[in-house]
Amino acid sequence: MTLAVFFGCTFIAFGPAFGLFIFTIARDPLRIIILIAGHISTRTSAVVGSLESPVLVLVLLNDRSTNIVSLTVTTHHRQELIQNQ
Predict the structure, then answer these.
(1) Distance CA 59, CA 69 (A)
(2) Residue 39 near residue 27 (C-beta atoms within 8 A)
(3) Residue 44 belongs to what H/E stretch?
(4) For residue 57, how many other CB atoms are within 10 A of its CB?
(5) CA atoms of 54 and 48, how far apart (whole Å)
(6) What is the pTM of this model?
(7) Non-local CB neighbours of 49 within 8 Å, separated by 6+ positions
(8) Which residue of 27, 35, 42, 76 is 20 to 30 Å from 50, comparing CA positions?
(9) Contacts of 78 by beta carbon, 8 Å cutoff, 6+ apart
(10) How does 17-40 read in b/e, with b if 16+ C-beta sit within 10 Å?
(11) What tens digit of pLDDT does each residue of 60-79 get?
(12) Are 32 and 25 in contact (CB under 8 A)?
């Protein structure tokens, strides 16, 4: 009985993931590789944006004449450039 419960729980837990693997990745693995490689630029842009936020705060604290709107727009444009490369 323990073995039956083990296999039953295993199939319930991993069945949907295994089905998705069979119907998508196993049929066309190159498409999945290209899809994941395409997301690298998006993740890079998110990391750069998250690293720039503390820098923007430090610049604003040290230089009161800096316009926050121009810094935000510059950061946004830089992220869009990274994503569209």
Answers:
(1) 13
(2) no
(3) helix 29-62
(4) 12
(5) 11
(6) 0.34
(7) 75, 79
(8) 35
(9) 48, 52
(10) eeeeeeeeeeeeeeeeeeeeeeee
(11) 666 665 566 666 677 777 77
(12) yes
What is the residue type of 26? A
Integer Cα distance of 26 and 14 in angstroms: 16
Q: What are phi and psi of 15, to 5 degrees?
A: -60, -50
Instruction: State how far the Cα of 77 lies from the Cα of 8, in Å rounded to an integer.
Output: 51
User: Which residue do the tokens 């196993």 mark?
Assistant: 26
Domain ranges of the chain: 2-83
For residue 30, the 8-state DSSP code is: H
